[in-house]
Amino acid sequence: MAYQSEQQLEDKLIVQLSTQGIEVVALADNAALESNLKIQLEKVNHCTLSEREFTQVLGKLEKGNIFTKSKTLRDQLDITLDNGDSRHLTLLFDDTSSISTQKNVYQVAQQITVKGTYTNRYDVTILVNGLPLIQIELKRRGIEIKEAFNQVKRYQKHSYHANHRLFNFIQLFVISNGVNTQYFANNSDMSAKQTFDWTDVNNKRISQLFDFTKVFLQPDHLTTMLNKYIVLNETEKCLMVLRPYQFYAVEAIVNQVKTTTNNGYIWHTTGSGKTLTSFKAAQIITTLSEVDKVVFVVDRKDLDYQTALEFNAFSKGCVDSTENTNILLHQFIDKPIKNKKINEYRNSKLIVTTLQKLNSVISKSRYLKQMEQLKDKRIVFIFDECHRSQFGETHKNLIAFFKGAQLFGFTGTPIFAKNAVAKNSIKKTTKDLFDERLHAYVIVDAIRDQNVLKFAIEYVGRYQYKDGSNNTLDIDVEDIDTKELLSSPARLDKITDYIIAHHNRKTHSRAYNAMLCVSGIPELIQYYELFAKKKAEGKHNLKVVTIFSYEANEEQEFELGGTENNEIREVAAKYLNDNDTIKLHSRDKLEAFIGDYNTMFTTKYTTKDYKSFDNYYKNISQRVKDKEVDILLVVNMFLTGFDAKCLNTLYVDKNLKHHGLIQAFSRPNRLLDEKKSHGNIVCFRNLKKAADEAFTLFSNKQPKEFIETPSYSVLLADFDKAYEALMVITPTVDSVDDLPDEDAQKLFVLQFRMLMQLKNMLSNFADFEMASTGMNEQEFQDYTSKYADLGRKIRESSTKEKVSILDDVDFELELLHRDEINVGYILHLLRELYGEGTEEAKEKKRQVIANLINTDPTLLSKKELIEKFMNEHLDGIPAQADVEEEFEYFWEKEKRLAIEKMATEENLNKDKLESLVSRYQVSEEMPLRDDFAAALESKPTILQRKKIVGRLTEKFKGFVDTFIGGF
What are the backbone dihedrals phi and psi of residue 763, each rounded to the nearest 5 degrees, phi first? Predict the structure, then answer.
């Protein structure tokens, strides 16, 4: 069978578009394009334009670049008629709007020829009201789709600017080689990384050109995309188009608002562009007459700033970050007051604010009277990163105050039954708070679609006995988790040296930068001072900066180090004798570290002024994004909600699990350029089990979302039983002091802890009062004080008695293990699947493996065989067998069968074909045309040889992708 030519592909596409209601027109050149534009503008605007008036139209359309033309397209074009009157012409109608009565006119033309720097002929052009808005470039089957992208770039450079620059009105490009089809927005600086596949609502890719045409190139869908889902980014002055999962999420939310009063949440993995998705949802909802306000809620001031910045980037001036609760109040009530600054925030249907300010405006008495008018209004709340912002009292206050509220949450890491954490002894999931999940796009989807980078996870570090040690502890790296050992200066010193030694290689000679997240403030202070000391010694010149939250009344103190400024030294010295050690709180340390930052960047930040400290946070954020910082040292800040594309490495010396691990690991996996191929994760703790569990949990689209909680009556009965047991141990508060030994004290602590947990759980019920139990509130508070003091005493005693193992172990830095989502990682999961005990557990693991196979393009060609091994061969393997050996045997057998099949189908000499395969395995050298020709059993004609060799080349590539590549 002959190949389908590019022309045949193009002709078939034109026929399909005509059946979908798009008029086929012949437009040979630019003159024909302009003539057609005049006719269509007259038709849709119900007018007649003289030649002079149309010349004026062309003059106005010619002005501006791609970005400004996109604004012109969505505005009205003002012209002066020959009689002196003004006329407004509409270029693009929003016929998705209920108030629009005018339909856009769709036409399709092929091979329009335009002469610019060079003469170019464009494959297929879709015109809307006469303007070329969608351009389709095709390559025949068998040609890489990237060539079509390169052709678009060439046309943009050579001829789109010609004549009256009408082709600079293109909004969307579609490229295809028949079997792969992608779309992308028009910009002067286009990247192949910003080309997207279209999918169905379940994220199944629609690759074939004619399947894509059926769903994407329909006039109704194109109108929706052009009017709603292309975003004009004001900061970057560029066009952005939503990806399919973003489109489906916004459509689902808008439909929920239009048709119901139900809540909902969106699960889109970290790094997949939730801010853009939420912005479009908010923007579209603000156009609905039935909605009074749209409130976008974040949980911290830093995110409030960042989100407002990003929202304003999409639409300049659309939202202002509130500076205080009084401003938020006036945003809600649209009431003018004498304060001119506050008046600037009024009359905004879209509000961005923090959870804390929102709680203040609905709970503090000074605001409640004015807020009363909003209680029954239709207000839509959209919560950013709702996995951490909505599990407290504010949620209750919000739904209690706003009777007409509709809540939507966005999260990259939802709370399920497995990763739920008790709050007031009650576990709640994302579903408990937001009800229905409206759309899911999980981490395996994003890696598969190359919308985020894959991970390369390295586990570094081993504990070993020192020579002569008598320690009998099992010090395997899996079991070591003592704070003393993990925080030991010797260990942290070695890790610091390791980072210094490997940082340039990890970051491609500092083309990118890194974060180091650590377990706590004491460890952070040690790390910072180690980096500072080694820099002073000339061992590195890295720019290391830090920020952390400090407690107002903290107990822990730190010795004066080498980084504190003279002011701190002078103040401390006034209150000490000559031989005393100067002790500082963490705030003093941070003040000194900010002093280093001020010296490094000629700034004047301080912790003494909240506004200054807030600006310090923002400045660090920007300098990391601008690559002015090499390593950002943190405990918790910046591990969620912070996106810096230039970040490619995360060093981890902190225990992480579930959603916290995924959030942190996702910091360095943002797309940037061709050189940034993956996100580096370097773990100095053994987080492998936790990482495997987290990736498994957040790759499963059907996790358990329900947590069964006891009824009120059961909890009340349990509380009374626990109280009776407490009375046996300590019948009065004073009797706690008479407990004879530590065992008795521990028994009291455990029993009262159980009582506290039950009270917390009961407090979640509106009907609960302490009077309904056998214990009064004062008695409970008195016992609480005894419990707190005694618990502290026991902990301190336990710490003093603990035997130190620091003298017996060494921490050695070596690469223990490296994980990538590839065949090796799949084999690791297959071994786990083989060891599962129940069919239910096996089925869950099979689903996880099936999902992960889709995360890497190199695995897709292997999918069928991996699933065949998993479903047909794994259960038949003998007990105690080596799964990896069995897999290799299976793989070699399948490879041999594939060679035999290719040899038979293509009439090849089997031995010669095997020789070509062996040569490729050794040298990765693809066979040449003559190699294939020599392997044929019978010599073809010259005409036959071209077709046969072309087909063999494709088959051999497919064989290599399946059996050799990716191992």
Answer: -65, -15
With respect to residue 401, please indicate whether it lies within any of the assigned structural domains.
yes
> Over the stretch 397-420, which tens digit does the pLDDT of each residue have?
888 899 989 999 999 888 888 888
Same domain? For 440 and 487 the reply is: no
546 and 581 belong to one structural domain? yes
**Residue bearing the bigger pLDDT, 940 or 905:** 905
Distance of alpha carbon 903 from the chain centroid: 46
| Pairing status of strand 181-185 against strand 454-465 | unpaired
In the structure encoding, which two tokens stand for residue 236, read together?
A: 């970057």
Question: Are residues 267 and 157 located together in one domain of the fold?
Answer: no
| CATH, residue 312 | 3.40.50.300
State how far the Cα of 634 lies from the Cα of 545, in Å rounded to an integer: 9
Phi then psi dihedrals of residue 594, to 5 deg:
-65, -35
Could you tell me if residue 233 is inside a domain? Answer: no
Q: For residue 121, which phi and psi values (nearest 5 degrees)?
A: -115, 125
Residue with the larger pLDDT of the pair 386 and 345: 386
Q: Whole-prediction pTM value?
A: 0.75
Kindly provide the residue ranges of all beta strands, DSSP E only, lying in 219-292, ordered along the sequence.
230-233, 238-241, 264-268
| Residues of the chain above pLDDT 90, percent | 38
Pair (661, 513) in one structural domain:
yes
709 burial type by CB count under 10 A (0-12 exposed, 13-18 middle, 19+ buried) = middle
Asked whether residue 469 carries a pLDDT value surpassing 60, the answer given is no
Q: Is residue 825 part of a domain?
A: no
Task: Write the single-letter amino acid at 551.
Answer: E
Give the strand pairing for 379-383 and 405-411: parallel
Domain count, the chain: 5
CB neighbours of 326 closer than 8 A, spacing ≥ 6?
342
- Residue 785: predicted pLDDT: 87
DSSP 600-617: HHT----SSSHHHHHHHH
How far apart CA 127 and CA 36 sit, in angstroms, is 10
> Domain of 53?
6-223
| CB within 8 Å of 211: residues ≥ 6 apart | none
Phi (first) and psi of residue 512, to 5 degrees: -125, 180
Distance from first CA to last CA of the chain, Å, rounded?
34
For the chain, give the number of residues: 967
Q: Comparing C-alpha atoms, which of 658, 665, 696, 699 is closest to residue 680?
A: 665
Please state the φ and ψ torsions of residue 852, each to the nearest 5 degrees.
Answer: -70, -30
Coil, strand, or helix at residue 470? coil
pLDDT at 307: 66
Reported as a single tens digit per residue, the pLDDT across 112-142 is 998 888 888 999 999 999 999 999 999 988 7
Give yes or no: residues 719 and 656 share one domain: no
Reference 956, options 938, 939, 922, 931; nearest CA is: 931
Element (H, E) at 406: strand 405-411
Shared domain for 190 and 111, answered yes or no, is: yes
Report if residue 454 sits inside a domain: no
